[in-house]
Design brief:
about 85% helix, single chain, globular, about 450 residues, mainly alpha
């Protein structure tokens, strides 16, 4: 695959460009998701079903702290894409330097905080009973590597903003492949149990960090920064913060949702229900990889062309991305509706878990074909620097609709009400996103073209 420079984002045909951007992103997400999937299978088969639940308990905490890097990466990358589109390279360089400074300041601070309150946080996130001890082992080791993971997540978004999806893909492939290799060595060969699973994950991100560091020091990157770029600039930090807060809020809501759902399901069905949710959660990361890939490929194209005031190309990439992502979402939907029993048995042989998970999986993915519009719509506002609507649309799916529904519906349907909340919140949030996106196209993009 030939290198895509930033200028190509404003000149190549939209369909061809979106595929060129989205395919590497999709492959990277696929391999990363497969890594999570296979990692869970390894843990379930080699350690036990309780270990799956333990990892699921830890994910919200480590995921949120690592999401700081992603938030800074996405927020800064929006600025970088638009700056490159407007031919303002000094701003792009200053933004990148500020991203690095912010990433390490925040991730190190929160990792220290997370380790200090370990015994309080794990039970709060559903790590109770037999789940507590393996969850604590996994949690402590994972947090040692969180600052490195934060840089990896930040750097990956910047690489994509430069128009280099191939290298962004490599940055996702390396930790995924490395984790599986380390899993086999640490868990199966050395019999290190939960410690092995945790060190495999942490070690794989260290390898990815070294690759990303090499990329930015090599001739492949346009962003050659010096020490002056690391000094925080109030205006740039504010813009990174407002746009990055959208991503951070999304990840925070994901973490809160894990906490609430884990606890609610534990009250209804104990460890079996929590394990079922862990399996469904892994499939949410894995099965939607092509839709997420389209969304990631869409962002730099929309941002660059918006910065260059090529609004006709912005409209074209919106509609093309929605069309492609919806088609792929429909294919995913069919597979999940037909084979949930087979999928569940990949993870565990525990018959109690195998019995309850397939039906829950069908409910959780019932509205998958339409979520593409919601994802693309929210991503558009973030890509073009409109933080407030991006934040609102990001929060609609889980904070505004899902969390209230998961408390209301169980009053009438019991545990099933929690699973019914997934498709209902998807439908409602998609309707809201469609309204805002249609208004944006009509009032801003059409008017600007005219």
């Amino acid at each position: 695959m030939a290198k895509t420079s930033s200028k190509d984002l404003g000149t190549q045909p939209i369909g061809q460009l979106l595929i060129k951007q989205a395919v590497p992103a999709s492959i990277g997400i696929l391999v990363m998701s497969l890594n999570i999937l296979v990692d869970t299978i390894f843990v379930g088969q080699w350690i036990g079903a309780t270990a799956i639940a333990a990892i699921n308990v830890v994910l919200p905490v480590s995921f949120f702290i690592a999401a700081l890097g992603m938030a800074i990466g996405v927020g800064g990358s929006s600025i970088i894409s638009r700056a490159l589109g407007a031919d303002n390279k000094p701003k792009a360089l200053k933004t990148f330097g500020n991203q690095i400074t912010l990433t390490f300041l925040f991730t190190i601070s929160f990792a220290v905080f997370g380790l200090y309150f370990v015994d309080t946080l794990i039970p709060a996130f559903g790590g109770k009973g037999n789940i507590f001890d393996p969850a604590k082992i996994y949690y402590e080791i994972i947090l040692y590597g969180v600052p490195v993971l934060g840089f990896v997540m930040m750097g990956n978004n910047v690489i994509r903003a430069e128009g280099n999806p191939k290298f962004a893909m490599y940055a996702m492939l390396i930790p995924s492949i490395g984790n599986l290799l380390f899993d086999y060595i640490f868990i199966n060969v050395l019999d290190m149990g939960m410690e092995g699973a945790a060190w495999a994950t942490t070690g794989s991100y260290i390898v990815s960090f070294l690759f990303i560091l090499w990329y930015f020091l090599s001739k492949n990157s346009e962003l050659k920064i010096n020490l002056s770029h690391f000094k925080l600039n109030k205006t740039i930090v504010s813009e990174i913060g407002s746009l990055g807060f959208v991503t951070l809020a999304r990840q925070a809501v994901v973490s809160v949702t894990f906490l609430l759902v884990n606890n609610a399901l534990f009250n209804f069905g104990g460890e079996t229900s929590v394990t079922a949710y862990a399996i469904v959660g892994r499939m949410m990361m894995f099965a939607l990889f092509p839709v997420f890939g389209i969304t990631q490929g869409f962002i730099p194209i929309a941002g660059y062309n918006y910065g260059a005031q090529q609004f006709d190309r912005v409209k074209e990439v919106i509609f093309t991305a929605i069309k492609y992502a919806t088609l792929l979402g429909a294919i995913v939907f069919i597979g999940l509706m037909v084979f949930p029993e087979v999928i569940t048995k990949w993870f565990t042989t525990d018959m109690d878990v195998v019995k309850v998970t397939p039906n829950n999986m069908r409910w959780a993915f019932a509205a998958v074909p339409i979520v593409a519009l919601q994802l693309i719509g929210a991503a558009y506002f973030q890509a073009v620097g409109k933080a407030l609507p991006a934040l609102l649309l990001t929060l609609t799916r889980q904070a505004i609709f899902f969390i209230p529904l998961m408390y209301i519906l169980p009053l009438f349907f019991g545990e099933l009400g929690i699973w019914m909340s997934f498709p209902i919140s998807d439908v409602l949030s998609t309707l809201v996103t469609a309204f805002f996106l249609r208004r944006e196209v009509k009032l801003k993009l059409n008017k600007s073209v005219a």
